[in-house]
Amino acid sequence: MTTHRIEKTQILAAPPADVWAYLTEPDKLAIWFHRPTAPLDQTGPFSMPGQDGDPLCWGEVQEVKPVSKLSYSFTARPMDGLMTHVTWTLTAVEAGTRLHLCHDGIPEGAATFGLLTAFDSGWDDHLIRFRKAMA
Q1: Of the residues 1, 26, 95, 123, which has the fewest C-beta atoms closer than 10 A?
Q2: Helix (H, G, I), strand (E, B) or coil at 87
Q3: Which residues lie closer than 8 Å to 128 by C-beta, 6 or more apart?
Q4: What is the Cα–Cα distance from 70 to 88, expressed in whole angstroms?
Q5: Confidence band for 135, pLDDT divided at 50, 70 and 90
């Protein structure tokens, strides 16, 4: 099956350790994305409940390299169980961090094109909130 990939990059005026905290700590994730039930700093299943308490997003943290790489499988309630993959890569730059997002595994085809555009737009919105949270 052929899949789509969404990639986005931000340059943030904060050290990788601070950016890492916003990718893994529940209180900080809640500011720009969704609050997980546990930190995302160890491999294993995770869940991010919606306001109704049922899982809104979930998956399994698959790779943790503190302050440089975090990857996990990812699905959300509207995806009907379709599992995708998200990887965050952090690279130290002069006075901050280059943050790269790669979200892949989104199936190609007209039937899922709306899902692709929704993810693309959604990540834009979340990353704007991420940048503001880091300011």
Answers
A1: 1
A2: strand
A3: none
A4: 5
A5: confident
Phi, psi of 100 (to 5 degrees): -120, 130
Phi and psi torsions of 9, nearest 5°: -135, 140
CB 71 within 8 A of CB 54: no
pLDDT score, position 108: 87
Residues above pLDDT 90, as percent of the chain: 81
Angle between helices 16-24 and 110-134 (to 10 degrees): 130
**Residues 70 and 79 sit within 8 Å (Cβ to Cβ):** no
- Sign, Cα dihedral of 67, 68, 72, 76: positive
Task: Determine the residue type at 44.
Answer: G
Task: Tell me which DSSP letter residue 108 carries.
Answer: P
Nearest to 126 by CA among 29, 18, 60, 24: 29
**Cα dihedral sign for 97, 83, 40, 29?**
positive
